[in-house]
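Review form for a predicted model. The reviewer records the input and the model, then writes brief findings.
Reviewer: anonymous (R2)
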Amino acid sequence: MPVVKGCNLPDHLLYDVDNHIWFQEQGDGTVKVGMTTVATAMAGQLVAFTPKKAGRKVDAGKSCATVESGKWVGPAKSAAAGEVVAVNDDLVANPAIANTDPYDKGWFVILKPTNWDDVKPGLTLGANVTAPYEAKMAADGFSGCA
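Model under review:
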């Protein structure tokens, strides 16, 4: 697993580095979406998570959820367009799960993407994510995960 400045980035995931979002293909035409440890470290302790509801459409580059911490409120932008087919109700009830377990229990939504074949080539495979994330962290002035 790549570790960039103390931030774990599992190599089996696909990353939208610019938006600190990961995607995991589910094998049934859907993708699980969440935020990286870099995002959680930058945001601090999450206090609210409001996903789009199941059945709602998400446009490419637009929000699939709103995330709030003591430092930041903003959208979790999905590179893929599609329909939300599941939301993480456990994360709604306890947003801090994303801080402690962002890649397993802290996922956001599951999407049925409409444009996955177009989006996937633009994402970074975990095995290749080290250099792009080092550059992004340097550009953002982020020193790393604690």
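Findings: The first strand starts at residue 3 and ends at 4.
Further findings: The mean pLDDT is 96.
Recommendation: see findings above.
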